[in-house]
Amino acid sequence: MTSDTIAPETLSFEADVARLLHMMVHSVYSDRDVFLRELISNAADACEKLRYEAITRPELLADGKALCITVTADAERKRLTIEDNGIGMSREDLVEALGTIARSGTRAFMERIEAAKAGEGAELIGQFGVGFYSAFMVAEKVEVFSRAAGGEGSWRWSSDGKGAYEIGQALSDETPARGTRVVLHLMDDAENYAQSYTLEKLIKEQSGHVAVPVYLVEKPGGEARQIADGTALWTRSKGEIKSEEYTEFYRGISGDFDEPAAIVHYRAEGRQEYSALAYVPGSRPFDLFDPDRTGRFRLYVRRVFITDEADILPRYLRFVRGLVDSADLPLNLSREMIQESPLLAAIRKGVTNRILGDLEKLAENDGDAFIKIWESFGVVLKEGIYEDWERKEQLLKLARFHSTAGDEWRSLSDYTGAMKVGQKAIYYISGDDRARLEASPQLEGFRARGVEVLLLTDPVDSFWVTSVSEFEGKTFKSVTQGGSDLPDIPLTDNTEDKVEEETSGEVNAFISFIKSTLGDAVSDVRASDRLTESAVCLVAPDHGPDRQIERLLSAAGRLETVTKPILEINPRNTRIVALAAKGDDDPAFREDVAHLLYDEARVLDGDKPVDPFAFSERLARIVERGLGG
């Protein structure tokens, strides 16, 4: 080094490295082999970045050398080296990318481009910081030598991953002419990762389809042998791709380890030419409901990575992973052009329609496979019913529900095909617990007539049903709102005739008394034709929100006034008949009963008594009366 060389510095990580590395090693990754895939993915990202930057700065590739990744084994010294001739890193890049756990170098690249208002660029494969630190599962020390493309100077980063790292200038012979060299000093129990046959097997299994050629050097100074040719999987025909290759590629772009539940791969030709490769994951991502989560779909133009923020898919398909490679879009596509491009709008429409169409075919041909997807992502797909008006009918046909008909998932076509004579609507009840819904008193009259009721337990259900007018000519109707229309539907043969008995005068008078006693607490008190066993229940008025959506909106502070419910009384219930027969000899007792019946209905509906203290006192008085004979 010259006299003006900057001395190496020892710096602390900006995160609790020891704790997070422990989580990485023992929680995030269960298979240590994954470190190689992560490092090769990072190297591929670096090459993709350089290929992109060279569109506007061709001098960066003036040396004419093809982009590649080289893996070198050194079994004698227990070392493994992964080197690329991509974009490289400056000292600041190294500190930013490797100085903080979970800090993404590719994300920083995106932020830099946005800050410069270039309007071009993208976050690439994954979280560089996290993937890089998987190396410490097998290495007791990691060194990074890097030289930025078009920059001056070369740098060395070194750490044992225990709380600090060292950074300083590197010797010229330690660093590639351009790009990054990562050297792993392997632990004793990880020596096999310096064996060429182990490395070749892992590269072919995990990274055989990265878009950059990968070479293997079996020992320092040896000849480089190509292991992966950098052929993009999506450019090949479906017939020549094995299922293992699809899975390998999926794991590479998603960072997950599950098997894809469905694969959509096709090439569109005609007015727009593009290739699309999409995966439905086999399990639900942990951040599926993160408000900031965006789709994980990439846009390429003639195999040059452009962005993964092009919104190729609607938000309700945000769980789908994959890419589109267009032959028609310009390489200098800016962010503004991406949002406004008619061609990209056509691609969006085509890819979305194809994915939903393939899901429809899967539902028809392999119901069990589709149900697995629905159980993971149905709650998200249902967002599209009220967000995507154009595809509402298609999404309604895909939707599956639990109902009072049994434990099997039911489609809306299944439901309408089993409707009873005289039934005009698709009935549903919504809430947050299936068991409680099945026990709801509002269902009794429907069971008595064998009418199926959908059990909607996802919060999104309360919203999409309000935006859908009908399905196959049948309207949607909540069993907890308005009249039940049950008198138009015949009773089943085994239902007692007393369900249809007329309400007695005494009961009618008792109902009128309850209504006058409760006053403004309810909007009405009336005899019920939906109850067959329970004494009381609450329903919402005909107009306005039903009971569940009102709760959700009120809890979110989106509802200024709450609609007063209707209290329905079962005129055939033995308790109601007996209470009505007592007359008005004891007004205080009857008032207590009126309030207790209302609180009983609230509890059955999942609410608390209006006034717990008053409820307790009334209950105590009723009990004392009973004990007194």
From TrEMBL:
Localization: Cytoplasm
Pfam family, one: HSP90
Organism in which the protein naturally occurs: Aquamicrobium zhengzhouense
Highest taxon, organism lineage: Bacteria
Keyword hit for Magnesium: no
Family designation: Belongs to the heat shock protein 90 family.
Gene encoding the protein: htpG
Region named C: 552-629
Annotated region (A), positions in chain: 1-335
Function: Molecular chaperone. Has ATPase activity.
Protein name listed in UniProt: Chaperone protein HtpG
Stretches assigned to the Histidine kinase/HSP90-like ATPase domain: 31-190
UniProt keywords, alphabetically: ATP-binding, Chaperone, Cytoplasm, Nucleotide-binding, Stress response
